[in-house]
Amino acid sequence: MPPKKEHIDRIYTTGAAGYPGCEHIEADENGNKDFSKVIERAKELNPPTQIEEGKIVGGFAHGQVFALADKVVEAVKNGAIKKFFVMAGCDGRMKSRDYYTEFAEKLPEDTVILTAGCAKYRYNKLELGDIGGIPRILDAGQCNDSYSLALIALKLKEIFELEDVNELPIAYNIAWYEQKAVIVLLALLYLGVKNIHLGPTLPGFLSENVANVLIESFGIGGIGTVDEDIEMFMAR
Ligand code: SF4
């Protein structure tokens, strides 16, 4: 991302990273890097100020969710939880990403969001409550923790003795931005997950042919309006 002009004299790079106008810290012949310039510059600047307060609940990687498995399974069996929504992935500055805040807000109260990565910052401060003590946002952590979400899906498949991961009451409405999110998507496709929806736009680097394969073989789709999408997901 090109930095704003007013920040460029406060951005330093090192290693493989670099940007015109940002000072680059090189290692000396022994591989040591001298970061004293960065420290001096930081000392000249005003300290950060608190801009908000409150608390959010996190820590629902697979170990913790497996510990709650009995509760979760019971809630699915007795209908207290109708559907899980994997709303993992990235965040970005585009206004169109407000879609994910509105989507989380409007989801029926018998649904639970499984999240990991930056996408959660669009909705993790909403008061979505809990279902019998299970928070309606189960946050596994950062994007690499999508691994946990995959394990949770596979565990549920095992517990419910299903043949296919797609038989689970799980919908995938994923926000993407960076290449890493694409790798996560490939992992989900490898696991056979179908009908994943990506937004706010489909990746522009997909050629028409590749996009067609993803759509025809895996049912990949984009997003529409929040109301239409919730209706579409809940009908599946
Ligand atoms: S790939 Fe980058 S933007 Fe996306 S969830 Fe991970 S850290 Fe956030």
Structural features, described:
The protein has 236 residues and is α/β, with parallel strands linked by helices. The protein folds into 2 domains: 5-44, no CATH class; 62-235, Rossmann fold. 34% of the residues lie in helices and 13% in strands. It has helices at 36-44, 62-67, 69-77, 98-106, 146-159, 179-190, 208-218, 226-235; strands at 12-14, 23-25, 83-86, 111-115, 130-131, 134-135, 137-139, 170-175, 197-199. A 5-stranded parallel sheet has the order 7-4-3-8-9, with helices on one face. Strands 1-2 form a two-stranded parallel sheet. Strands 5-6 form a two-stranded antiparallel ribbon. Helix 4 crosses helix 8 (226-235). It is globular. The model has no long low-confidence stretch (mean pLDDT 94). Iron/sulfur cluster is lined by residues 89-90, 117-118, 143, 177-178, 180-181.
How are the strands ordered across the major sheet? 7-4-3-8-9
Structural class given helices, strands, pairing? Answer: alpha/beta
* CATH C-level class of the largest domain: Alpha Beta
Number of helices: 8
Question: What is shown here, in short?
Answer:
The chain is an alpha/beta fold and 236 residues long. 34% of the residues lie in helices and 13% in strands.
